[in-house]
Write a structure and sequence with these properties.
The chain is mainly β. The protein has a single domain, classed as Beta Barrel (AOC barrel-like). The chain contains one helix and nine strands; from the N terminus they run αβββββββββ. It has an eight-stranded antiparallel β-barrel. β7 and β8 form a beta hairpin. The radius of gyration is 23 Å and the shape is globular. Its main location: secreted. It comes from Rosa chinensis (China rose).
């Protein structure tokens, strides 16, 4: 008799463990929240072309492989690019984007970014860390905001890229619409 009670108790506990998480998951339906902080910035990348070291803000540190020259597969670029509030390259910088990107597909034009936005202005102090895939053929692309410091301590959110201009292989400008959903 006690083994039947023990087996029944175990089955009851197992059923409770399986049902309870699904009850919690349905208790709070997904609601789209508004960001606690939003920034729109422009990221200016001027790739060193072998002749203009003074104005270059990025450089290739690993050349593309011989597997696919059209999409620059394997090329690694390190950057320290200015951030502005508008699309003008010569506007006052509100910070710097520091990190790297590499071209990661042989059959399409895409890159993977990992970088930090470094702010040191009267408006913002601190950093935001951003990483993710840039599927350049899409009009807009979302990358993850994975942390921050200072005014952006432990921030989480989304950075939406939109190519604002592309001038050959040596200059591009991205509009970054940064929406933070966890602000402390």
């Amino acid at each position: 008799m006690s083994t039947i009670v023990a087996k029944s108790s175990i089955l009851l506990v197992l059923n409770f463990m399986l049902v309870f998480p699904s009850v919690l998951a349905t208790k709070y339906p997904f609601e789209e929240s508004k960001p606690c902080k939003r920034l729109v910035l422009y990221y200016h990348d001027t790739l060193f072309n072998g002749t203009d070291a003074t104005n270059a803000t990025s450089a290739t540190v690993a050349n593309m492989t011989g597997l696919d020259r059209e999409h620059k597969f394997g090329m690694l670029v390190v950057f320290n690019d200015p951030l502005t509030k508008d699309h003008h390259l010569l506007s006052p910088a509100v910070g710097r984007a520091q990190g790297f990107y590499f071209y990661d597909m042989k059959d399409d034009y895409t890159a993977w970014f990992a970088y930090t936005l470094v702010f040191n202005s009267s408006e913002h102090k601190g950093t935001l860390n951003i990483m993710g895939a840039d599927l350049m053929y899409e009009k807009t692309r979302d990358l993850s905001v994975v942390g921050g410091t200072g005014d952006f301590f432990m921030a989480r959110g989304i950075c939406t890229f939109q190519t604002d201009t592309f001038q050959g292989d040596y200059y591009f400008r991205l509009k970054m619409d940064i929406k933070l959903y966890e602000c402390y």
